[in-house]
């Protein structure tokens, strides 16, 4: 929800915050400002409105919160005293999903292109200007948070709200064909679809020369709007609001404001009665509230007087109930308040979270250890495996193919190439090996501990499993024996380089404190280049010292590994030949070769 | 079958090898996956005395391995360089060093902080029910908070891949008796298209405390302690009001942007602060649904997303790298 700083000031004339302070205060009270920019000499604040605060999807709700926070008055826009006629409005409601609707008819409309202030206002909210009538309905939606809609009376002489039974298609104002589903909430004229609950249609759209219009502002069953919007893959400014719990009690103010603006800017004449169909009036909520409870929740001193004052300023009805308790009735616009904890949160947020000290963590006193023993086994095994020289990997638990008919499939994953939950860790290890081979990683040896999945007799089974790969199958065999664990050999072609152990079937330690040493991981972006070099020396040298000497000559940002693979003594000449194998990364072939030859002095050999 | 004769034949064959390549070819012929020895092992069931035959076969295999190993050294040294004497075989190198995955490393750092505060660790299933992933966390089926999480279903609408680590919290609350303190790292799934900056698998780190007299002050202090342990004593944290259905009041901890130190930059989208997760006092409905009396017990819960932290810490630009991707480690300390 974007708000313009100068516009919020119209709702709060006594606001003294500059735009930056306003940003910080809005964030503090729960409306995180994720964007802050200057456009057309206006400061725009982009607010992330919490899912339970649909009231703040309009200036009105945001301004109410700021009025409480700053202890200032709210300035409601000027609304004319509207005189309605007695002419009935041709509206029929045949759907239980309509919670409240106000509607009337306007005539003698002088519609035109919108004035500059209106065009600018909408543009700053990313809405294109159409004409004054349409633009004012959008303006009112942004101000009050409740969508409203205008129908051209010449095109739509009667309006019926109904759940779809007969219609297959709807064409929106922007000429998009939308295929309808049963039960979609529609507005029809009994012959064709005029509009959906959250988007207008071509069959009733307002033109620049429209003179008569039926206006309506309605709130629906939000679940119905949400289902329709998602199933029809159509999201609009209206659906974003109507699929949340809006306040039916705000409609009279907002609708009157729209009519006032139309009288002022389009010289509209109200030619119909005020239709107000209100089958779902909100129930009054009474909450028992102890004003000392916010202090107990926050862990700091918050006076009862402050708590009661905040609730009154929020528009709650406050009645003293017993000695220390009050009966609180929140305003209907605050759909998020239904229990005493909600009231506690209101008091604490307006008191300021910054008032709560941060130097008192929970007591370090140990409570009974409820750690499942499998977690100790996993930590222990990981430590043992890295000591044996294995790298830990983490892979996708979803794989391309199943191993047998006990596999579990996902129903709706967007990543449909990977529909199966892995049944063996070896499936994941093989994918990782493919990846490492693509990068020509020398001598890979790695492991993963994670879940494997299967189903049997309608039960979903997941087990912790260890998968290991070593390029050297003999080393793998030795390592598995040193771990002293029963294992299953991999079924890969060729050599037995994979092994898997189901950990949930093993005995587990009662306690284990892991080794917390950390190390650096590298994101591979190009192939690793491995080159050999033969170095002949006059004297026998310590291999580790040689590796240290020559590795120091190479930039660590490109040196992956260095080892000596062979040492020979030339008996005749009494010289020693060392074969180095050096792997480079982060560089191309040519650079690697150049550095390699230079490091070992091979570039000078003719 | 006369295994002794087979041993003699094989020995002659091994002796006849004149190059290391020839020797390797013989090794595969005898000891490879589809080689002679494995073929003999496959016939074990039809032998008159399988157990004895198996023992003899093992002995034959060991003998052949030894013969090839001995021949290997002489084949190389004698035939490939007559004037050279091999001093070390097969390799002299620095010992291979193993590494924990960066996510595990980060989880362990966090585990250590919480273990020092007396926390246990906990875990729960990745295939979850709607009840434990949503309903017991105060998110009924038509709740708008469901929009925050696109769910991958196994069997819609009841069986799914957990979308949040909080499902472990609902398992924990229903399985353990208070008081308790537990932290739980875990993998979660959302129905997102995978690209450089989005993944359908994330890692959450969450925790919960249920005890008497728990306050927001305890929660703020605990999270502050965590951030200072990870980022040093000078790190600046702020707490703001935030909405999560399973807590009330809800809290969002932010860390001052490490890049611009509050001035506003591209990394923090001009805000000067970076969102680090969510927390709050456990909603009384959540405790009630787990059979815990909210008039006696209070608790706090917190959750952090690990992936972004890890990417920043290890300078990883592509989120796909973290899972089965291009992540690797230098094999030894040079």
Round the Cα radius of gyration of chain B to an integer and report it. 30 Å
Q: Please tally the β strands of chain B and state the result.
A: 13
Low-pLDDT residue spans of chain B: 73-82
Most residues in contact, chain pair and counts: A-B, 130 and 118 residues
Total helical segments of chain A: 16
The count of strands of chain A amounts to: 29
Describe the structure.
The complex is a heterodimer of chains A (606) and B (334). Chain A has 606 residues and is α+β, with helices and mostly antiparallel strands. Chain A folds into 5 domains: 2-70, Phenylalanyl-tRNA Synthetase, Chain B, domain 1, CATH 3.30.56.10; 91-277, Phenylalanyl-tRNA Synthetase, Chain B, domain 3 (3-Layer(bba) Sandwich); 287-351, 2-Layer Sandwich (Phenylalanyl-tRNA Synthetase, Chain B, domain 1), CATH 3.30.56; 373-505, 2-Layer Sandwich (BirA Bifunctional Protein, domain 2); 529-604, Alpha-Beta Plaits (2-Layer Sandwich), CATH 3.30.70. Helices cover 28% and strands 25% of the residues of chain A. Chain A has 16 helices and 29 strands. In chain A, the strands form 8 sheets. In chain A, strands 5, 6, 12, 13 and 14 form a 5-stranded antiparallel β-sheet that branches. In chain A, β2 (32-39) and β3 (42-48) form a beta hairpin. In chain A, α4 packs across α5. Chain A is elongated, with a radius of gyration of 36 Å. Chain B has helices spanning 3-16, 20-31, 36-42, 50-80, 102-116, 130-133, 166-175, 216-231, 284-289, 307-314; strands at residues 84-88, 120-121, 127-129, 153-155, 159-161, 180-189, 201-211, 237-241, 247-256, 273-275, 278-282, 298-305, 327-328. The two termini of chain B are 54 Å apart. Chain B is of the alpha+beta class. In chain B, strands 2, 6, 7, 8, 9, 10, 11 and 12 form an 8-stranded mixed β-sheet that branches. Residues 73-82 of chain B have low confidence and may be disordered. Chain B has 2 domains: 3-80, no CATH class; 102-322, Bira Bifunctional Protein, Domain 2 (BirA Bifunctional Protein, domain 2, 2-Layer Sandwich), CATH 3.30.930. Classes of the chains: A alpha+beta (606), B alpha+beta (334). At the A-B interface, β2, α6, α9, α11 and α12 of A face β1, α5, β2, β4 and β6 of B. β28 (559-570) of chain A pairs antiparallel with β1 (84-88) of chain B.
């Amino acid at each position: 929800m974007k708000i313009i700083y100068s516009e919020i000031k119209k709702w709060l004339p006594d606001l003294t915050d500059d735009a930056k302070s306003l940003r910080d205060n809005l964030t503090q009270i729960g409306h995180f400002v994720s964007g802050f920019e200057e456009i057309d000499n206006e400061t725009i604040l982009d607010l992330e409105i919490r899912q339970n605060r649909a009231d703040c999807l309009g200036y009105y709700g945001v301004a109410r919160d700021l009025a409480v926070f700053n202890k200032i008055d709210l300035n409601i826009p000027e609304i004319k005293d509207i005189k309605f006629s007695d002419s009935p409005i041709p509206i029929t409601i045949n759907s239980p999903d309509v919670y409240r609707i106000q509607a009337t008819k306007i005539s003698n409309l002088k519609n035109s292109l919108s004035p500059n202030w209106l065009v600018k206002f909408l543009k700053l909210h990313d809405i294109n200007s159409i004409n004054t009538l349409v633009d004012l309905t959008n303006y009112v939606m942004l101000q009050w948070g409740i969508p409203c809609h205008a129908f051209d009376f010449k095109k739509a002489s009667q309006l019926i709200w109904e759940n779809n039974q007969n219609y297959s298609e709807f064409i929106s104002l922007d000429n998009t064909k939308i295929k309808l589903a049963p039960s979609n909430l529609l507005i029809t004229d009994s012959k064709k679809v005029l509009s959906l609950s959250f988007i207008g249609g071509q069959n009733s759209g307002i033109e620049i020369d429209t003179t008569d219009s039926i206006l309506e502002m309605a709130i629906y069953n939000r679940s119905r709007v949400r289902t329709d919007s998602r199933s029809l893959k159509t999201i609009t400014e209206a659906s974003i609001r109507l699929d949340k719990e809006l306040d039916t009690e705000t409609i009279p103010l907002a609708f009157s404001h729209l009519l006032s603006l139309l009288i002022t800017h389009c010289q509209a004449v109200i030619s119909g009665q005020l239709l107000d169909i209100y089958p779902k009036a909100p129930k009054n909520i009474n909450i028992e509230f102890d004003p000392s409870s916010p202090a107990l929740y926050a862990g700091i001193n918050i006076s009862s007087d402050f708590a009661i004052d905040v609730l009154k300023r929020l528009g709650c009805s406050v009645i003293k109930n017993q000695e220390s308790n009050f009966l609180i009735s929140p305003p209907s616009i605050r759909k998020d308040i239904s229990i005493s904890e909600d009231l506690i949160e209101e008091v604490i947020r307006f008191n300021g979270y910054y008032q709560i000290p941060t130097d008192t963590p929970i007591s370090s006193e140990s409570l009974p250890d409820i750690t499942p023993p499998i977690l100790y086994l996993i930590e222990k095994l990981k430590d043992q495996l890295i000591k044996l020289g294995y790298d830990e990997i983490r892979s996708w638990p979803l794989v391309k193919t199943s191993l047998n008919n006990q596999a579990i499939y996902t129903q709706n994953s967007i990543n449909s190439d990977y529909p199966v939950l892995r049944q063996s860790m070896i499936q994941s290890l093989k994918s990782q090996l493919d990846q490492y081979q693509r990068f020509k990683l020398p001598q890979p040896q790695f492991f993963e501990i994670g879940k494997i999945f299967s189903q049997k007799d309608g039960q979903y089974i997941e087990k912790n499993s260890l998968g290991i790969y070593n390029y050297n199958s003999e080393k793998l065999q030795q390592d598995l024996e040193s771990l002293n664990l029963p294992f299953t050999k991999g079924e890969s072609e060729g050599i037995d380089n994979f092994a898997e152990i189901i950990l949930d079937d093993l005995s587990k330690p009662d306690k284990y404190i892991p080794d917390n040493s950390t190390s650096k991981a590298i994101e591979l972006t190009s192939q690793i280049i491995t080159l050999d070099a033969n170095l002949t020396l006059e004297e026998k040298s310590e291999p580790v010292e040689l590796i240290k000497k020559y590795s120091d000559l190479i930039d660590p940002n490109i040196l992956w590994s260095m080892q000596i693979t062979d040492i020979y003594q030339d008996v005749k000449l009494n010289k020693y030949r060392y074969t180095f194998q050096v792997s480079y990364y982060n560089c191309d072939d040519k650079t690697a070769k150049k550095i390699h030859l230079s490091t070992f002095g091979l570039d000078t050999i003719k | 079958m006369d295994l002794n004769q087979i041993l003699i034949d094989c020995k002659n064959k091994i002796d006849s090898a004149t190059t290391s390549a020839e020797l390797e070819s013989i090794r595969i012929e005898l000891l490879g996956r589809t080689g002679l020895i494995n073929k003999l092992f496959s016939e074990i069931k039809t032998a008159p005395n399988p157990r004895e035959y198996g023992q003899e076969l093992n002995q034959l295999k060991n003998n052949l391995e030894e013969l090839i190993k001995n021949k290997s050294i002489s084949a190389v040294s004698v035939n490939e360089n007559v004037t050279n004497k091999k001093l070390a075989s097969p390799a002299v190198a620095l010992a291979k060093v193993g590494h924990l995955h960066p996510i595990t490393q980060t989880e362990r750092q966090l585990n250590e902080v919480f273990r020092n505060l007396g926390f246990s660790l906990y875990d729960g299933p990745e295939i979850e029910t709607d009840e434990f992933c949503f309903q017991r966390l105060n998110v009924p089926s038509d709740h708008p908070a469901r929009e925050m999480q696109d769910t991958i279903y196994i069997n819609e609408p009841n069986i799914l891949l957990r979308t949040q680590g909080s499902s472990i919290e609902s398992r924990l609350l229903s399985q353990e008796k208070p008081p308790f303190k537990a932290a739980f790292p875990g993998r979660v799934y959302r129905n997102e298209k995978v690209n450089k900056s989005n993944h359908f698998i994330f890692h959450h780190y969450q925790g919960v405390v249920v005890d008497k007299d728990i306050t927001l002050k305890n929660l703020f202090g605990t999270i502050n302690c965590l951030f200072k342990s990870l980022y040093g004593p000078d790190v600046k944290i702020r707490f703001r009001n935030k909405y999560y259905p399973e807590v009330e009041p809800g809290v969002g901890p932010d860390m001052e942007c490490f890049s611009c130190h509050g001035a506003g930059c591209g990394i923090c989208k001009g805000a000067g602060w970076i969102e680090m997760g969510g927390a709050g006092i456990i909603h009384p409905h959540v405790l009630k649904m787990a059979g815990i009396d909210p008039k006696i017990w209070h608790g706090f819960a917190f959750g952090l997303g690990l992936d972004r932290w890890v990417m920043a810490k290890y300078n990883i630009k592509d989120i796909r790298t973290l899972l089965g991707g291009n992540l690797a480690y230098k094999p030894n300390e040079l």
